[in-house]
Amino acid sequence: MTAYQIFEIASLSILLLILALDLLLVVRRPHVPSMRESSLWVAFYVSLALVFAGILFFVAGGRHSGDFLTGWLLEYSLSIDNLFVFVILIARFGVPRVLQQRVLMAGIIIAIVLRGIFILLGVQLIENLSWIFYLFAAWLIYAAWRQAFGPDEDEGLQDNALVRLLRRRVNLTDDWHGGRVRVQESGMRAFTPMLLVLIALGTTDLLFAVDSIPAIFSVTQDPFLVFACNIFALMGLRQLYFMLGGLLDRLVYLHYGIAFLLAFIGVKLTLHALHHNELPFLNGGEPLLWVPTVPTWLSLVVIVLSMVVATVTSLVARRAAVPVSR
User: Fold this and answer.
1) pLDDT at position 326, please?
2) What is the signed CA dihedral for 317, 323, 325, 326, rounded to 10 degrees?
3) pLDDT per residue over 222-238, tens digit each?
4) Does any domain span residue 224?
5) Is 238 in contact with 108 (CB distance < 8 Å)?
6) Does some domain include residue 286?
7) Residue 325 has what pLDDT?
8) Angle between helix 35-60 and helix 223-235 axes, rounded to 10 deg
């Protein structure tokens, strides 16, 4: 067993243990986290990702470490969009403030499991169908257009088919019953709204994974690194939700930054596909080796700049639109 394989097993075991401890804290101590507590948790998970990258540098080299940092920042940037949806879903289902941590944590765990399955399927597709990169690229460019010019999240987000089916077929209570999923009410078994919101969060995140997983494959096709990037991006999402709070409403141009990022990754995947082309009707099935490829460092710069520019311009525009009281 190589040092890299040992690192894979050890790091995944530690991450799963941290997730389990985090879940235990949420279940045993339900509360609304303060700004300080949320900030400390976000700082902890960011530091953990940087430590992971540092150890990876010594175990597997600079390329793997650089790929992880780029992929993690990419997934973290795209997961900001998830926060907007989380805000809408939590408000729509009327989740009590004290239960929001538990709801988010459970939804994130569901999302990690579903994304793991999605990643394994994606790796198999890439290994057997190299032209899948063309489809990934086309989808990301479409997703960029939809992000920039599509309907607002609160206008375009509707209950998915599974949630609508449960509303019709399952006996649901009106009360949350302390966050329990199933209860006995009037001598009959019934499900609480917790079931609906968990399914909505998990399945909605999977829809976002349709954008983010192809994007991360533009950085690396190593399934371990792809999964690690997603875990680290999702682990800090719950605390980021409480830390940002009302700031999300001020980031009016963030969707343009995400749209630019998706379009950039779509172009990068197109160049990658052309560079490894096997389509018989394109250049006789031979790779177009003269086509340039986008280096990892450039992807890292574009990710950081797109998020910084979108955030700064949003805050400046918001400040200019709101008169300062004297």
Assistant:
1) 31
2) 100
3) 889 998 998 888 887 77
4) yes
5) yes
6) no
7) 38
8) 160
How many angstroms separate the Cα of 33 from the Cα of each of 29, 239, 271? 10, 8, 45
In the block, which residue shows the tokens 């969707």? 255
Question: Is there a domain that residue 313 lies in?
Answer: no
**CA-based angle 101:106:110, to the nearest 5?**
145
How many structural domains does the chain have? 1
The model's pLDDT over 262-276, given as tens digits with 9 standing for 90+, comes to: 898 889 888 888 877
Within a domain: 23: yes
H helix or E strand, kind and range, residue 234: helix 223-235
CA 206, CA 315: separation in Å to the nearest integer?
Answer: 30
Q: Which residues of the chain have pLDDT under 70?
A: 151-162, 179, 186, 245-249, 321-326
Residue 188: give the domain boundaries: 3-129+147-246
Instruction: Assign residue 288 a region (left: φ > 0; alpha: ψ between -120 and 50; beta: otherwise).
Output: beta
How far CA 257 is from CA of 25, 206, 208, 311, in Å, comes to 35, 21, 16, 8
> Would you tell me how many other CB atoms lie within 10 Å of the CB of residue 273?
25
CA 133 to each of CA 3, 153, 225: distance values in angstroms, whole numbers, following the listed order: 31, 28, 18
104, two tokens: 């988010």
